[in-house]
């Protein structure tokens, strides 16, 4: 008996919520990584998230617990490496060795890589609407990210390559992880992705742990840490994995292009930064691109198109 399919509105609302949470997380996480080494914080965050997720899974979905076997646990090693360990480690370390502009511009490659992978696999069709939509949204993000300030140099090459690795890793996770997540319980799958990721990120953070000293814990730092764990990790990963089971892999990746708009709105609301003409123009391009890329091939097939791939 197949599971009931949620409406496209609910799936896209979940994906939009992920981008809003990530947008807020960028602001609060800056406070955390100013006090913690990035890999140490990534390790601590995923360990705590694993414990919370495991407790929730045991209480809420004990009967859906995986029964064991290589069909579940072996593929999870690869997916945890792609979607958690390589993804987070290469992004954080890459950001340390490159400029914030380079990082922001290069991270726009995630949807591009995802679309390329699913197209080459024959997982999703490449129509003119989707191609044009992706190009419009990408151009909007590049405008708001100030692509003209992007520059390669000997000082940034390591960070730039690690950032590209982050994009490629997550693109492979979205493309290849979709069918696995469709077949298994979302809560337990996310739980085990966190558990596997805890081992990988902690192993990478071991050199930093040797010299780590716990920072003074101010109320602002504690609040930022709590949000980064609950909002920036638990909710974002679960909602993203849940939506991935019902939406195209490329559509899940495409929603990443909403992040700069969220960041601009937050900067206006919290810091009073002006919404410029550049921001408005890029937002129009992103919204038009999203509408075109997410439009179903036939109006009556909207719900069915979510299951493609």
Fill in the keyword field for this structure.
single chain; 309 residues; mainly alpha; 13 helices; globular
User: What is the total domain count?
Assistant: 1
Question: What percentage of the residues does DSSP assign to strands (E)?
Answer: under 5%
Sequence stretches where pLDDT stays below 50 over 5 or more residues: 299-306
Question: What's the overall average pLDDT, rounded?
Answer: 84
Bin the helical content.
over 70%
Distance between the termini: 20 Å
- How does the helix and strand content classify structurally? mainly alpha
H and E string: HHHHHHHHHHHHH
Describe the structure.
- The chain is mainly alpha-helical and 309 residues long.
- The chain has one domain (8-305).
- The protein has 13 helices and no strands.
- Helix 1 runs antiparallel to helix 9 (219-244), helix 1 (8-33) packs across helix 11 (259-271) and helix 2 (38-60) crosses helix 9.
Architecture blueprint of SSEs:
Layout: H1 8-33, H2 38-60, H3 70-97, H4 100-106, H5 109-120, H6 128-144, H7 157-183, H8 186-209, H9 219-244, H10 249-254, H11 259-271, H12 277-294, H13 302-305
Summarize the structure.
The protein has 13 helices and no strands.
